[in-house]
Amino acid sequence: MTRDAIRPLPASSHGYNNVDDLDILSGLWEEALFARLPRDAPSELRDLVEDIENPRRVYAIHKASRRHNFQQLVQKYIVQLREGCGSEHCNISTCFTCRKRAAGQVPLRRYNPTSARIVATHLASQDNPENGLCPGLKTPKGPPAALNSLVFVPTHKSRLEAERALSTSPKPSSPNGRPVSPKSNGGVQSSSVRPRNGSVGSNSKGKDKPTTLPKDRNSPKPAFEVYEEPVSRDHRSFAANVFGTVAFKMLEWLTPAALEDMVQKTKGFREETDGARLQHPEPEQVEVKQQDAERSQGGALDVQPVARPVQTEKDKRDHKEDQLQRDTPPTMRSTTQRRNSNAKVRTSNGPKPKRQMSIDPYPQDSLADDQYSGLLKSPRGNSAPTDKGPRALKPTTSALSRPISQLSSIGYFDEVSLEKMPSLKAVDLKSRAIRGQTDGARSADSGSPNDNGARSGVSSERSVSNGSTGAADPDSELEYEGVLPQTISKLKPEIVDLFCDVMQEDGTAEEHLFEPPTITKFHTKKSAQGKQAKRRRHLARVSSPNLRLEWKLFVEQSLFYVLSDPGLLVKSFTEDGHLYDSQTVWYCMLRMTRVAPSLLFHSLWMAAGSLFAPPKSLLAPRSPTAKLFRNGESLSNHEAGCLLSICLHALVASAPLVTDSRQLHDMSRIRSHGLSLAGSGSVAQQPADLCLQYEDAFTDPFALRLARRLFTALTTRRYFDELNQANNPDEEHESDVLKPLFSQLDFLSMEAVYVLDFTFPDRALHETRVPILLLDWARAVMMTGWDGCPEVAGDGPFGGALALIEAMYKKRHDLLLGDGHFLAEYFAERMDTVNMPLAWLSHNPTRQRVHLLDYPYIFNPSSLVSYFRSINFSRMSHAYEESTVLHDRIDVIASRSTLTSHHKEVLADRLRAAASKYLILDIRRDHVLEDAFDQLWRREERELIRPLKVHLGENDGEEGFDSGGVQQEFFRMAIAEALNPEYGAFTVDERTRMAWFLPGSMEAEWKYELIGLLVSLAVYNGLTLPVTFPKALYRKLLGEPVTELHHIDDGWPELASGLTSLLEWDEKDGLVEDVFARTYEFSVSALGQHITREMKPPHQGGGEGSGEEEEEEWPQFAKTAGHAFVAAAPQDSNTLEDEAPLVTSANRNAYVSDYIRYLTDVSVRPQFEAFARGFRTCLMPKSLNLLNPTLLQSLVEGIQTIDISELKRYVRYIGWDSSHRTVKDFWSIVRKYDDTMKRKLLEFVTASDRIPVGGVKNVMFVLQRNGEEEGEKGRLPTSYTCYGTLLLPEYKDREVLRERLAMALENARGFGFA
Known about the structure:
This is HECT-type E3 ubiquitin transferase. The protein is of the alpha+beta class.
């Protein structure tokens, strides 16, 4: 299991498991701003609108509840940081108890409240923050320490009387008509603030009714004031002037725990004030009672909504209790008890913030919290009293005041018995309906048929325009369905366009850093989709600000409702089980990321939690893994893949909108190095603005959090598949979870549903954009979560990102990606090139821990070659040291022993193989291959991996010091002789010069093994060979299949072209069997023999090279004279009775596959297997996993293209410089050489005609001055091949230099000391 597999709950569950959480949720349900369908919404939306009965699915409730939970989590971390858990065995590094025990006697500095809150906020913002809490953490019993400096002073009675007098006079207003809130003097006021009056306007018909009323007419007046005790501080101190301000202290004063304690302290003050207020009722209360009486007689009170003062929920509840005590009979008052506050934090006890707090995970929009705070109110909130009388107090169980019939199917109250919930009679539907009408968001177009009573305020446009409650606009005469919030049940591309256009036009879109900030429609709709949905602009829109808020609430609620539910999300972007095409999904996400990115990413993050629910097969009662998981909403792999693809497209949409594919590639290269800006020496140059836009997008916290969850879910789904396969090995298993994504990215696939029409350039650019940005996001997650260790967690976000890169690498040809797109230079630049590869050799990958070198395609070729050679050099050094130690011990034993000289010689001869420090080969020039075979035959592996020393031609008088050049010469000569077609072991194509095994060769298999050993020795010692093998050989050496035409096109280009024509032939121009006339046979000519065999399909259980195929073995020529074929081979083709069938259109695909298999495997299997055994002798099998076929080919063959200009850049000069006349003449002559002469020059200086892997910069080429030559018969140029030095005399002119240099290159042979 992954660390995130069990913890995330399904999208429909948020873990409200106790009465306190239900109390919080109930309070939010009473006060939340509910979204309703706006009045000018198009008619196309009404069919998709539905009511929300589950409070967890209401965005306003979710947002407030999440913020409250975050505050609670921060408070727990503060306690843990400052006080600790007190457990003796605590091992949580952030716990004060653990830190104190680890420090021992060393003084330990405790966090102050401010620093503790900063650290706690960071810890609570991480993924799975509950994991960092101590299991035994206890809630502090005492009040927060920050309250010790506060003094609560009761307000004098005369001041209360003065306030009552002031309450009857009009309050000052701002120039725009909004009430001015009272200010506080240096201290925190009581939990209630003076009410304020405001005026929206008078009735157009001049009815004699009050036009302005306080927002909360019965709110209690301040009963106390709060002051801070004066403390002495240094006013010159920066810390005291910043962290000692009231603003910082309020971070501690306004926490839920602090507010709860302040409520308890001021309880007596308010009771005293309430008693005084009962004796002296205020004029406002009398006016309210008159209005209640008028409403009870059936009259409709036209009340204009005004701004609501800032007021805590505790004061509202106390105020309701005060009024209840005045109006309730004594019998009822005696049986109703006041609910006591406990130590747990409740949101109902804290003030509703008017501004964005630092701990709010969502940006608070000033439009919703300030400008319209008085215009819109939840139907569950406080309002004028109704004809039903005062409401009863809530029971201590805090059950929602909802009918049981509406809650029985929600699934939220699973741990609360239904008997505790109120019955239908306890719900005052009429009063709530009336309260709902005062909310400006409850539009007349919401389609409700049940609200025919009086309407007030801004409940409809007609009450504002003409004051009539009976006249109605025929286009907006739609009635209420109730007081429940509404939402869209499915997002369609046209709805996404409508929502985004509305929010951009109204200016209610969220502020963000994504570029471009706004997106307009740039597609065309299909003809079958009908007309585009638009707002009904012909309606009179008097209260336009209120309508803007209606749209904002409805759009946010709809996006949250659909995007956070995995079922609705998949339903919105699929049709008949098939995903929309990639560009349509990307376009929808692009538009939504530019209007509500935080909401989008958070909602998708919630929906992605369902990816961790195990499939139904693992939850079966008989399944061995049933007890490991809890029951929950489970998704099939196809559904999970659709959800994963949609979320990944949202991440892609967050990147800057780049319209040039070259910029996409360059930015990907820049970010693969971990760079934010492209400097002067960067791999690519792009504008700084674009680089910063990329940085903003890929460091967005909400997007990164979503990416981490998606990648973690990928590894979890793979693990579920492994468990399912282990439990049910005989059943057919589901497809991989990434299959829907790759099917969507395959732009030739016909499974995708194309909804929107885009231009061809846009389609082509999108085909490049999505795979590249997916790789960029995977690298971003890896870089942000990497700790510098090459071993990483395989079941976390890092492992999931690697899994996505691996899957895309396997599909790179379908995704049109090259090997360079997968590079992550950031890691190679920060790892040790010597010790890290050696540690990787001993690493055993598991599901929990993987090594970066297990994914070699994220490293560049030069780094992989360095790692590969580090492994070989380490083995060579270890073998050298072992032999040196053994040699020294033998010398000591021989010197101290009493053995005779004869016995010492015998002992030394028997221990020569173990004590030799080098692998020494004495080679004659005329018998190079023979001497090599003789001296390498039956050598032990410990001898072969020692440093190589070659003595070439010393018996013929040559004098050469082997520092690399002699070895290069030896391998060049040996391989050239081994591959000579005259020996009958290999064939060489005359046009491509490619060497391949001769089918049925007469040479013994041990010779192929020794040739493979020669190649292995050269690679092991870092030398290149003058050979040219087809890439198919290197694929087979690395265990990769050879099944495609592009695998053989370099070795057999004409054959590949002919087979391609066969596959692409259109039978409109003739039948395949008539035009090509091919039989289902494989034919080859070897040693004058023409062998033909009918091709047979391989055995189902066998693989390539396994020897289990059904087809017969290819006939082999006799190894000695007088032997026939190992298997009798007819000279001609099959007889008439067994004539092979013709190749037709039906079997041509199978024919091509079988022909490639016979060409590269069946016909040369014995020869290749012997060669492969020798090749793997000196090389560790695991080290070969670092290489791909192209890189292995470069290691063996080097680079055949020689760039003289590049060589001139890296050449070194001794005795002169580049400005010398002879040096200029030399480069002028060499630049005009053809490829043959260039190779001869390089071979003359370095003993190899190939550039080693890594390029010319890895070639040692030194141009040294070797005296002056005045005569016409001067010395020829010479070279030190061991040191890559060309000794060039200074000739009198360019022609002499050209002649002498050409003569030296044409006749270079042998070694000697100059």
